């Protein structure tokens, strides 16, 4: 509760003598670090030291974070401008453990005056102060990636940007960490051949490039699943190029920005809003600053509040006690749920398309839950399940009604788990894949708390179900509650967990039906395979007993097999 | 990569007609949220909206976080001033779902000029800019608790503080969230009867009080384990009072502040340090700004760097390319490990004392690892295990050599797990208990990655071992890498995980020996109980066969039992 004060205290007597000299030294040190030494911490300094909070805690992860932040921004910009996004991601090794991450988009470009702050200042942006669905929301990401690049290589960020009306501008800049301000090294107008508009950012950083479940490759693949309208070209450090073609030219619906919902506003926030508003009456304040409040609701609230408050009360003059009554009155008043046109889910159909495009499986099911609300923020959950490859159940019924084993497929780099592995969990928030911190995420919690045994799957130790399966969960919201600035896991709000579970159950029930069919198939297949092994022997026996010709024998065998297969009922 | 620009883009043609009006509305909205609307985000605003990052995501957790931040600060202050800490924690319910958290210490008190910023400004403090072991390190905690109080109740924080020389001061203040600045409501000199020095802070907040594994009660109990020199009085909301008396008057050793180790400094950081230093020669810079660099090492580094650098080079004039060579030269030079007198572990003996005082078990073992280094920061790991209650193995050998069952003890509120539960994990960082985010913590990872089967425990699904056991892990470091501002989980640095595992293995081996003995006991107990059931029958049979008197029979039975027990070997 207290900070050290200037040498007000001598060291106690019980310091061993031999360390007396050392102790004296420590006392003088303590002077330096006394309360007088307490000082401001720049937010950039804070995050440079705590860069693992931003996701930059290992060279493998750093490269992914940089790609992710740049791609998030690019997609947000394209969507806000109504442009069908075309992205290019290039990773180039420029030294030992040093890579250049370049991300280029066909977005609207960034106005000159904004470039510096957007790439060279933490906590700066357009998305934090509004409630609307976007990938970025903190004003940290891309500047943090640049800061990490500078920290590890000493090199600044290169930005190339062109708006439709302006000329292409190249800016070389970095962040002044101690002051959290952009430091511009150069800026000039350049030619950008063949580019109408767009932005390209290049960051050089210490990094490691690896394949695997949490690699850049996998991140981009999953991005393609969640953004069926995106065309993305990816050049990996070996020079290999992958193109994810868009599955649909349908852009995500434009989402509206919303005002906060009265039921989600805390008393302290209400007091600040009353103080900061430009409205000159309480009635106007309630209707202007919140969603779902019209004249009738405003009247009801004010009447319920009492304390001498009227529709004409001057907002900035309302004291804490009155505000507390107002807050209670708001909570007690029925107000319709926030509008939901501020949320754009992927949609069950497109989700299915996306899953089928990138995941090979036997069975797919998706569910989109109706929108719900946590802490006044609307959100919507989508769930998809792909089941039954690689190598797993792997039985199928042919067109002629036969059951056969499917060819095994290489399971490496696959998004569907092998049969004896826990199901793969694909987590998405506002169409962004979340690859790290699975253990600490509300989505994981929801999946492990779901009873998968009742759908015919095994679930050892109350963990993830073990099955050849991928479970995809997407949350779309005007404000996604991430557990940290690295935006890798959802905080466990009960409303969110409830919705995810309902979505999982919806998909689970359909999966259960499929699995029971599969298990029946498997049982029949085993029996049949056993019998079929003996049919030729039966044929030979019959031939001997009934004295058949070879042709008659084969016909009999064929008839037997046929009867056997037709006896199967679906 | 780009922000929306001012209406440079019309909506595309494929907007359905019926929503044309809506679209127009959205276009105008988009105007408001265009690049022009990008702006600074105050760090207080950021964390108010993301308060779950600070740990304030539920009313139950909020009350714990407030107590934790206040207790952390109080203990840090006492230790830095060399005072044996005496704390008082009071929780009082002041309304429906509203509690007042009050924490009072006997620390050195806070100088007048500092009170405002310490309680009313995020990212302000004395601990961030130095490398030394302390509970607080971010300059966020206590102000954040106050911010949450204001957010939920609208009420400011009350601080009472008295330094040895000054008079007691009462300050009522809150944080101005939009500007991240203290807003002082009042300040006056008051009388504080019977208090020589100390600080008391009171925060009123919306909260819920619950008992259980992650309650304030449990936090304080664990704090007492990790701080055997602390006396703590706790008054819970029902008025019940618990006093944790200190187990030792021995204060934790004073720890020194250290300079960064050259091997832990990134290129970008080196460049900033060169730019900011007041040293006028490269040689001086290397020796002044880093630990473990003397004239010889400095010479070696500069010689290895080449690029025209000399011991007399002027630091602020060293360019990026030269700095890069210098950085490489540092990495290539052998430099001794950082000093470790900057770390104060609890110590195996005191840890054992602490465990025995608060945990009832059959078997205790502790281990203190030697100090190690991650990212240039020294740290040290301690592990303790308490095994074999409640109700679990529960067999003991009496003084006469007999085996008997122990009385069962109530397992509620106990820190040791029941026999069929996963072991309880008690995590500590710089003597602070970590109660939340267990799943995302490097300590948990280390425990689950340890093979407990080889010590005779079951470990289903590769999770925590299932046993009547508590595992305690403590990390002491000059900089603890928490995964988020709420300081609930450690980031997974490989060096840290390795050390924790080694500590667990050291304890595990000793536990294994104990368990094998216990299992032998159990086997023998089962056999004996079986035999003893029949001894009376054997007596009766012998009596009949040998025609014994009742007395002779009883003597024979007693002798038989005696032989049976003496035949046991330890």
Summarize the structure.
The structure is a homodimer of 570-residue chains. Chain A is of the alpha+beta class.
Tell me the span between the first and last alpha carbons of chain A.
Answer: 72 Å
Low-confidence regions of chain A:
1-36, 391-395, 407-412
What would you report as the Rg of chain A, rounded to the nearest angstrom? 31 Å
CATH class of the largest domain in chain A: Alpha Beta
Kindly report the CATH topology of the largest domain in chain A. Heat Shock Protein 90
Question: What oligomeric state do the depicted chains represent?
Answer: homodimer
Largest sheet of chain A: 8 strands, mixed
> Which two chains touch over the largest interface?
A-B, 120 and 118 residues
Structural class of chain A: alpha+beta
**What is the general shape of chain A?**
globular
Question: What fraction of residues of chain A sit in β-strands?
Answer: 15-25%
Q: Give the helix proportion of chain A (percent range).
A: 25-40%
The number of helical segments of chain A is 14
Number of domains of chain A: 4
DSSP, total strands of chain A = 18
Mean pLDDT score of chain A, rounded? 84
CATH architecture of the largest domain in chain A: 2-Layer Sandwich
What spatial order of strands do you see in the largest sheet of chain A?
7-6-5-8-3-2-9-10
> What's the CATH H-level superfamily name of the largest domain in chain A?
Histidine kinase-like ATPase, C-terminal domain
């Amino acid at each position: 509760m207290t900070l050290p004060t200037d040498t007000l205290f001598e060291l106690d007597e019980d310091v061993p003598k031999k360390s007396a000299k050392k102790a004296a030294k420590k006392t003088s040190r303590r002077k330096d670090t006394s309360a007088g030494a307490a000082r401001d911490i720049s937010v950039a300094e804070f995050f440079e030291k705590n860069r693992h909070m931003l996701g930059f805690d290992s060279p493998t992860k750093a490269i992914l974070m940089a790609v992710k932040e740049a791609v998030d921004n690019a997609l947000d910009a394209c969507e806000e401008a109504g442009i069908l996004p075309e992205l290019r991601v290039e990773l180039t090794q420029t030294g030992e453990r040093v890579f250049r991450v370049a991300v280029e988009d066909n977005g609207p470009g960034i106005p000159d005056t904004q470039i510096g702050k957007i790439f060279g200042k933490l906590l700066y942006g357009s998305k934090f102060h509004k409630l609307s669905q976007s990938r970025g929301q903190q004003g940290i990401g891309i500047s943090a990636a640049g800061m990490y690049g500078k920290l590890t290589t000493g090199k600044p960020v290169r930005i190339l940007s062109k708006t439709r009306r302006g000329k292409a501008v190249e800016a070389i800049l970095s962040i002044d960490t101690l002051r959290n301000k952009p430091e511009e090294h150069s800026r000039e107008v350049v030619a950008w051949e063949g580019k109408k508009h767009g932005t390209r950012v290049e960051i050089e950083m210490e990094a490691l490039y690896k394949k695997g479940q949490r690699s850049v490759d996998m991140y981009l693949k999953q991005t393609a699943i969640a953004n069926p309208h995106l065309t993305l070209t990816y050049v990996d450090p070996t020079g290999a190029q992958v193109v994810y073609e868009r599955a649909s030219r349908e852009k995500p619906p434009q989402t509206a920005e919303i005002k906060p919902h009265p039921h989600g506003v805390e008393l302290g926030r209400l007091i600040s809003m009353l103080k900061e508003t430009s409205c000159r009456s309480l009635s106007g304040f309630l209707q202007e600053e919140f969603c779902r409040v019209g004249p009738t609701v405003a009247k009801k609230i004010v009447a319920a509040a009492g304390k001498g408050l009227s529709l004409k009360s001057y907002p900035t003059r309302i004291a804490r006690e009155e505000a507390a009554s107002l807050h209670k009155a708001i909570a007690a008043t029925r107000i319709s749920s926030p509008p939901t046109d501020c949320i754009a889910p992927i949609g069950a159909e497109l989700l299915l398309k996306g899953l089928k495009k990138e995941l090979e499986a036997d069975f797919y099911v998706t569910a989109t839950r109706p929108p719900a609300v946590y802490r006044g923020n609307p959100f919507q959950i989508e769930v998809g399940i792909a089941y039954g490859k690689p190598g797993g159940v792997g039985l199928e019924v042919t067109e002629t009604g036969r059951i056969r084993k499917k060819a095994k497929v290489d399971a490496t780099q696959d998004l569907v788990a092998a049969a004896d592995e826990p199901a793969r969990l694909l987590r998405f928030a506002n169409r962004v894949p979340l690859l790290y911190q699975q253990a600490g995420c509300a989505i994981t919690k929801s999946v492990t708390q779901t009873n998968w045994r009742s759908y015919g799957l095994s679930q050892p130790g109350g963990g993830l179900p073990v099955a050849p399966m991928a479970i995809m969960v997407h949350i779309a919201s005007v404000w996604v509650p991430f557990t940290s600035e690295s935006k890798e896991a959802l905080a466990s709000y009960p409303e969110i967990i409830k919705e995810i579970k309902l979505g999982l159950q919806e998909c689970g029930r359909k999966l259960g039906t499929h699995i029971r069919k599969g298990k029946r198939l498997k049982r029949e297949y085993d029996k049949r395979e056993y019998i079929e092994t003996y049919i030729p022997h039966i044929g030979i026996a019959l031939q001997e007993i009934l004295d058949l010709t070879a042709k008659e024998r084969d016909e009999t065998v064929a008839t037997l097999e046929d009867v056997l297969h037709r006896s199967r009922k679906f």
